[in-house]
Specification:
Blueprint (H helix, E strand, L loop, with lengths): L14 H17 L3 E5 L2 E5 L4 E9 L2 E9 L4
Antiparallel strand pairs: 1-2, 3-4
């Protein structure tokens, strides 16, 4: 197992960029293939075995939806 340094970033995308990434992700999930994405200069490979969830948060007058993808690097 490789030692990757910890990372916690958030990257903003235009509507068109975000839609394109979602389409590529949906295609990979539907086709049962690995998804790859570059975020802030680092290429990330999401395995077919990843778990997907949707989270909704509400605090005061703000709401947030997060699409989460989790997996373990074995």
């Amino acid at each position: 197992m490789t030692n990757k340094k910890q990372r916690d970033i958030e990257k903003q995308y235009s509507n068109a960029e975000f839609a394109a990434k979602l389409r590529r992700l949906a295609d990979a999930v539907e086709n049962g293939t690995r998804f790859e994405i570059q975020i802030a200069g680092e290429r990330v490979y999401v395995p077919v075995s990843a778990e997907y969830s949707v989270e909704h948060e509400r605090e005061g007058d703000e709401e947030e939806i997060e699409f989460q993808i989790k997996w373990r690097n074995d």
